[in-house]
């Protein structure tokens, strides 16, 4: 059955009218035939998976043909916002979902800024894209009216130029009535580490969504609409005030996110001896990159739509004659880590400039930094030489060469063509098989958070089992590093729904922390809430299931208990694992890089620590058991049947 | 006895950038009590999961209050969080 038949069958089963107040339609766009249709996510799907990331999984599960390949235009790409997106403070997020050309498993990336909210202002909760446009195309959605327009004038533009051109050509104003998701040259060129930009810095980053969107011949989706209030089941603004007050009163927001942003984590990571350095050969790095050294370069903070937190640091390198990369947005901690210690760079100014270049080129800093770190270690070891790199010497800390390599990667020029293939460089014949030993990736995805998790066992388990690959944002049990929580067993038990060892290096009960985090983060994604302000990621005091269920009831009229929301989170993970199983993922893929098993941590108070294979395997089994998964990591038969019923499969 | 305690920016209005505790203490828990005598209320501010304590650049993840300290140690309050 081809994609059009699959879509027709699915749309035929879907309601033609909203199933609850505030629900937006799902827009199906056949880019090849330039046809559109709409329908509404069934209520049973919403009750099982909520919306946003969760409902995206429904669409991918139903439309995926695993006999094809990720960049085949008959593999759909889905954007989705949550039912609270655009309505609730700090709920400005949406997900982008497909089959990853980079990892080969699930692609599911999350971003904020304005697009996820503004697409809802146009009446759409989800956009399902398929087919290859006959020529480069831009989708314009103006006050709910969809047109497919010529995208060729924008071909070759990166993010900065693209945003300038679209604002000029549409007459819209960013952050007031105009939002966009777009690819850059990297996406046009099929760079596997390319993302879909959602703002000056915001990016649907992980898994190569830029390459996927480029494979459809789609340069951008642009929304134009005045912001407005939604008709909701009940008044929701009074409780918004409660949530906003809760956000702003929480220490991590007040004293960290709103003042300096996420680079705060650099210092504890390096003191702990957990700062991934030089492709995780080392685990600590210079104090010159501590968050306070960014203060001089930070003229202010920015935020996403209707978010009171404003956690995004802006930057200005104060050059007398600046070029377009001497000012910008960011960096976040991930970028600081991946383009600082990971590449042996010790200059704040260099990290900021490389961050700004990645923002323009549309490169996922996690995957690009991982690909660079891997290549640099291979060069250090003599596994590749200048004969392989086109004469480019790969020396740790050489920011000028790294800058040049970023442009070469986006263009797939010279050695940039190798870096553009990211984790697949061995499979594509660029590196010899022995290079795999030094690849820091899980399920084909390079690590996001540069934290070396040989010490923290809950963190390690989370990276192993995350459905999109080696990424902390799916389930990081961050509070594992907070001593005040570790030293309060009763409170920690309450937080995770059972006891979890206080010792960071212990394996005991760590699966429970990962399960709890995975559930609440999946729910957060599926309602549209930001991870930074979701309970358990950065604080025990931020909005969680109780706040989500209250606003879901107010906005949609749908009642959920906290336990039912927990089950929704579990269901999202379950469907993702069913999708991954169809793509060949098995228990053996829920693992970690060999380095973390085989090489002891070389520095810090936990020097000598590594992951024990037997202990890890036992922890993984316990995780499967409490997650209702079989020994191969897929939902048990009884649960599979329940999910299949909800999915209409 | 002199133990130096360094604070992050959020504590500057309350305690300044740095303080020296001269009272005789032998653990981090006692040090925090001594700090509270110098700056009433600071122990409550420190009882916040955002903040970790490092002693001589060794960050403590658990069993903090019983961690020994001695004359000449440098103790630092460090915000710890996750990013994206």
Polypeptide structure, described:
The complex is a heterodimer of chains A (649) and B (84). Helix content of chain A is 38%, strand content 12%. Chain A is of the alpha+beta class and 649 residues long. The two termini of chain A are 14 Å apart. The relative contact order of chain A is 0.12. Chain B has a single domain (3-79), classed as Ubiquitin-like (UB roll), CATH 3.10.20.30. A five-stranded mixed sheet of chain B has the order 2-1-5-3-4, with helices on one face. The A-B interface holds A 251-252, 254-257, 259, 261-265, 267-268, 271-272, 292, 332-334, 448-449, 472-473, 476, 478-487, 502-504, 531-532, 537-540, 605 and B 8-10, 47-54, 57-65, 78-84.
What portion of residues of chain B is helical? Answer: 10-25%
Biggest sheet architecture of chain B? 5 strands, mixed
Provide the CATH architecture of the largest domain in chain A. 4-Layer Sandwich
Give me the Rg of chain B, rounded: 12 Å
Q: How is the biggest beta sheet of chain A arranged?
A: 6 strands, mixed
Give the structural class of chain A.
alpha+beta
CATH class of the largest domain in chain A: Alpha Beta
Strand percentage of chain B: 25-35%
| Helix fraction bin of chain A | 25-40%
Distance between the termini of chain A: 14 Å
The number of helical elements of chain B comes to 3
The rough form of chain B would be described as: globular
